[in-house]
Amino acid sequence: MSAFGKLVTAAIAGLALSVGGVVTAAAQGPWVAPPEAKNMKNPVKGVGDAKKNVETNCVSCHGASGHGDGPAAAALPPPKPANWTSDAVQKQTDGEIFWKISNGRGAMPPWKHLPEKDRWELVNYIRTLKGK
Questions:
Q1: Interatomic CA distance for residues 25 and 5, integer angstroms
Q2: Looking at residue 28, what is its pLDDT?
Q3: Which residues contact 132 (CB under 8 A, 6 or more apart)?
Q4: d(CA 56, CA 82)
Q5: Rounded to two decimals, what is the model's pTM?
């Protein structure tokens, strides 16, 4: 795991616990992208360097195979990291996934600092995991 991944893991684990060591985070409702995100069209073909970006930024929570079972996932409060291979994720539009990567929620950080092309390549990479 990268130094960044270890830092994120430690920070998230710390956020999930109260002073008495009791998990205090409550589950959030369904994560729904706004209607305008649903209709966004993916302008990028291929995955480019997405696998490298996933290994650097995503594996600690989403796992090496995208099942949401990374080493930091156990310490996270609900909702747990998405299983990118699941029907629930794969049925979302490219725009919805792009919006979620860009904006984050709860323990999922926003990745707007990544170039837009990189975020679309991450969407394309997630598509390659369907049914795996």
A1: 21
A2: 76
A3: 65, 66, 85
A4: 17
A5: 0.80
